[in-house]
UniProtKB/TrEMBL annotation:
<dbReference type="InterPro" id="IPR049742">
    <property type="entry name" value="35NBP"/>
</dbReference>
<dbReference type="InterPro" id="IPR052018">
    <property type="entry name" value="PHP_domain"/>
</dbReference>
<dbReference type="InterPro" id="IPR003141">
    <property type="entry name" value="Pol/His_phosphatase_N"/>
</dbReference>
<dbReference type="Pfam" id="PF02811">
    <property type="entry name" value="PHP"/>
</dbReference>
<feature type="domain" description="Polymerase/histidinol phosphatase N-terminal">
    <location>
        <begin position="4"/>
        <end position="69"/>
    </location>
</feature>
<protein>
    <submittedName>
        <fullName>PHP domain-containing protein</fullName>
    </submittedName>
</protein>
<dbReference type="GO" id="GO:0035312">
    <property type="term" value="F:5'-3' DNA exonuclease activity"/>
</dbReference>
<dbReference type="InterPro" id="IPR004013">
    <property type="entry name" value="PHP_dom"/>
</dbReference>
<dbReference type="InterPro" id="IPR016195">
    <property type="entry name" value="Pol/histidinol_Pase-like"/>
</dbReference>
<dbReference type="GO" id="GO:0004534">
    <property type="term" value="F:5'-3' RNA exonuclease activity"/>
</dbReference>
């Protein structure tokens, strides 16, 4: 396997491409094994599979679950899940159920700092009403020139401590791993380099994840630089996790790394795709 990309998004969550177009782009970029991992939602997989079958791309059913752990938001990717599994479907419905009221709170909070109409504005960028995310707010805020790009909006408006940030309770780490395993999948800590946590917090997270039977971490992720890849390869070996590789591609012009174009996995590490029945 030369090119596997096990983390990306479509319009079912906060990606810019329809599942079909995402698959076409992945195929054009030489991806052999792709996981579509929309936030808290499995709704894009059927369309993605149709196109993947037509183009000869192997598709892995995926999802990126929003988790609250130790006061932080952590993302856990499930790979190889049965999309018909009732418990997983119910769990995800619960996780995304709070998104709309959170979005209204975010808009209130932005209004309190003088930015009005953010909820309606964000909705213009939403394609799946069940999945309003901070990315949709970010796109509207860029349109309104509150910041020059999406990354900048997050820095000034949407991350913890900023005016549009609203604390939210997602599911527990335990629930996420249980739902994923219960649906026949493997559980992967997404982009571990992105969490603002100390080394000791990270150690606690990896130990907790290991104790729950967690399978892998993303060693190569869209947001990891060279040093990050080396560091997480080392940590994967240390904790006995397999390694995943994902671009976290959201759309052309927005994501730093295109689908299938993340760095290669370092050698001497078990790639998680070997455990996935494609
Ligand atoms: P939410 O699930 O609504 O909290 O939104 C999280 C999404 O916001 C992530 O999946 C990313 O797509 C996006 N995001 C978070 N932080 C950043 C950032 N610093 N720059 C760009 N996008 C970000
Ligand atoms: Mn996202
Ligand atoms: Mn994520
Ligand atoms: Mn993602």
């Amino acid at each position: 396997m030369n090119n596997f990309d096990l983390h990306c998004h479509s319009t079912i969550s906060d990606g810019l491409l329809e599942p079909r177009d995402l698959i076409r782009r992945a195929a054009a970029n030489g991806v052999e094994l792709l996981a579509l991992t929309d936030h808290d939602h499995l709704g894009g997989l059927a369309e993605a599979r149709e196109e993947a079958d037509a183009l000869g791309v192997s598709l892995v059913n995926g999802v990126e679950v929003s988790v609250s752990w130790g006061g932080l938001t952590i993302h856990v990717v499930g790979l190889g899940v049965d999309a018909a599994n009732a418990r997983l479907a119910q769990g995800l419905a619960g996780v995304r159920g709070g998104r709309d009221s959170r979005a209204l709170q975010m808009a209130d909070s932005l209004a309190a700092s003088g930015i009005r109409g953010a909820y309606e504005g964000a909705l213009r960028y939403v394609s799946n009403p069940a999945l309003v995310s901070r990315s949709h707010f970010a796109r509207w805020l860029v349109e309104k020139r509150y910041a020059r790009d999406v990354a900048n909006v997050f820095e000034h408006y949407l991350r913890r401590g900023k005016p549009g940030y609203v604390a939210h309770q997602w599911c527990s780490l335990e629930e996420a791993v249980e739902w994923i395993h219960g649906a026949g999948g493997v559980a992967v800590v997404a982009h571990p380099g992105r969490y603002r946590m100390s080394a000791s917090e990270r150690d606690r997270l990896f130990n907790a994840f290991k104790a729950l039977g967690g399978d892998a971490i993303e060693v190569v992720a869209g947001g990891h630089d060279h040093a990050g890849v080396r560091e997480f390869a080392h940590l994967a070996r240390k904790y006995g996790f397999a390694a995943s590789r994902g671009s976290d591609f959201h759309g052309p012009g927005e994501s730093a790394v295109d689908v299938g174009r993340a760095a290669p996995l370092p050698p001497d590490i078990e790639p998680i795709w070997e455990r996935l029945a494609a």
